[in-house]
């Protein structure tokens, strides 16, 4: 496994619909992780998007992972891949790409333990709160579930997290948080990012 020397405290999910011109400023403001998630893009376009994101944020030291697609992460030179329950198995991804950071979506402590045993470097845990950013999610898990799941792998809490709740989630045991709407739906994404960075510091 390749654990990160300093685990990102704030992941911002990025798609082709977001204002990519803001990425350098977001990274400079302290957003230290970016997850490329663009499920509708063709493979070549997703590779190009990932390369663009990496070029924009790596100068600030931010980590770039790709949602679902190990092949794209490898082709684009990303730092890692984040795998959901229906994606390539963590153990297979670890065998194919021993040098990449691998995250796994988890919704219970048992799933976090299983992900660790399979070779994951971190667990994306959620949805902690209700969210409209992704359809078909189960009921929100709540902050207590974060505490129950903490301690095996670094946890990245996701789902309805805002600057107002990020500190609470971190205090409950999350090593970091991941957001979409809290940045991209804010009237001023850069201001939102700065508020989130302060909340998770």
Automatic annotation (TrEMBL):
Cofactor (UniProt): Mg(2+)
Binding site residues for 2-[(2R,5Z)-2-carboxy-4-methylthiazol-5(2H)-ylidene]ethyl phosphate: 131-133, 160
Record bears the keyword Magnesium: yes
Cofactor stoichiometry and binding remark: Binds 1 Mg(2+) ion per subunit.
Pathway involvement of the protein, from the record: Cofactor biosynthesis; thiamine diphosphate biosynthesis; thiamine phosphate from 4-amino-2-methyl-5-diphosphomethylpyrimidine and 4-methyl-5-(2-phosphoethyl)-thiazole: step 1/1
CDD domains (alphabetical): TMP_TenI
Binding-site residues for 4-amino-2-methyl-5-(diphosphooxymethyl)pyrimidine, renumbered to this chain: 35-39, 67, 105, 134
Keywords: Magnesium, Metal-binding, Thiamine biosynthesis, Transferase
Keyword Transferase: yes
Highest taxon, organism lineage: Bacteria
InterPro entries: Aldolase_TIM, ThiamineP_synth_sf, ThiamineP_synth_TenI, TMP_synthase
Pfam families noted in UniProt: TMP-TENI
Enzyme class, broadest EC rank: transferase
EC numbers, comma separated: 2.5.1.3
Amino acids binding Mg(2+): 68, 87
Domain Thiamine phosphate synthase/TenI stretches: 16-183
Catalytic activity: 2-[(2R,5Z)-2-carboxy-4-methylthiazol-5(2H)-ylidene]ethyl phosphate + 4-amino-2-methyl-5-(diphosphooxymethyl)pyrimidine + 2 H(+) = thiamine phosphate + CO2 + diphosphate; 2-(2-carboxy-4-methylthiazol-5-yl)ethyl phosphate + 4-amino-2-methyl-5-(diphosphooxymethyl)pyrimidine + 2 H(+) = thiamine phosphate + CO2 + diphosphate; 4-methyl-5-(2-phosphooxyethyl)-thiazole + 4-amino-2-methyl-5-(diphosphooxymethyl)pyrimidine + H(+) = thiamine phosphate + diphosphate
Family of this protein: Belongs to the thiamine-phosphate synthase family.
Function: Condenses 4-methyl-5-(beta-hydroxyethyl)thiazole monophosphate (THZ-P) and 2-methyl-4-amino-5-hydroxymethyl pyrimidine pyrophosphate (HMP-PP) to form thiamine monophosphate (TMP).
Name of the featured protein: Thiamine-phosphate synthase
